[in-house]
Request: fold
Amino acid sequence: MKTKQKTIYRLKVPRNTSLVPSSTSCAKTDDTKVSKPVYQPRREKTPQGGCMSAHSVFVLSKEGKALTPTTPSKARKLLEGGQAKKCWSKFGTFGIQMLVEVREKTPDTALGVDTGTKFEGYSVVVGDENNLNVKLDLPDKKAIVRKMEERKHLRRARRHRNCRRRPARFNNRNRKGFIAPSQLVVVGSRLTIIKEFFKLYPINLVAFEDVKFNHAKYRWGANFSTMEIGKTRIKDYFKSQGVKVFEYEGFETEKLRKQYGYRKTSIKSADKFTAHCSDSLAIAVAVTTGKRIEPGPFLVVDDTYRCKRRKLHDTQPAKGNVRAFYAKGTVFGLRKGLIIGLSNGNSGQLCGEYNGKYRYYDSGRKRGSSNKITWVSSNFFTRKDGASSVA
Reply:
């Protein structure tokens, strides 16, 4: 155990450690018959034959305020001239922070949000370019419910035993603004992603797909509650940022998507731009240019993993009435859920300990173990899409 802790102190946190696709990855649609705007911004060709946003480098002011993104060549000149320093987002994307005062005037910047029960789409449009598209894999709500049920049974059992117990406090809670834990974890995941967008881009417009369902009239829409509950918290955050929010219903989003010629796949879980980001980009374009914009870089953020932090031993005792050690929130002093670098050059998400080794999930969500790690990062767990970013 001591040798493991000594290894940790020597770890170096890299600048760009997320399992993110290279900056050349791009989402592309098949429909070429749709008329394009008269002016098209300059695009940079990629090895996959696609395109990417010309202004792909996010920019922060000296005080950390989001500014208009710039081109890689301009960012390189600013770095060489000592006017800026390198920085990276939690998405693993590259950016710069200015070391001198610059003008803070920015074009209209919109964030398109397409909500869902298990997967969501986010798109950022700055001026007439699509700078980033993100598909978010939400936490598994059913797994949280199972954990809550298990905890409830254990607490009830302790209250009937002559031992120290946690007092029942279900009847002295303030119910104002209450959200069930299984729903709260989903809302928190959404807010974490949204806040990162606001840190990187000068967003002043938000296009939000507002999902509504008549639960009193129909009984088959139970899953819609996951999208409906917590909307107020997200809208309150938008208000606190002083942005203008445009709300769209599902049929309006579909109409805009077809109008701009963005294709959508029926496979919701696919790691493709067409799974969810085609909708989010359509409504983001509607509140900015109103003309079709070529899709930009695309990545997937996987936020499904939720570790067990407080289960210190097995529920059932083993032979000899021994309750074996189970898990806690850290592994050799490192928090679970961190992105780690492995000795073979790959990356993974730290999830536990196995026979004195670090246990992790790889990009395919398969578990593995390693004797040592080379770096750690608190970035989002991201992965490449399954179609080389071409939808």
In short: The longest strand covers residues 129-137.
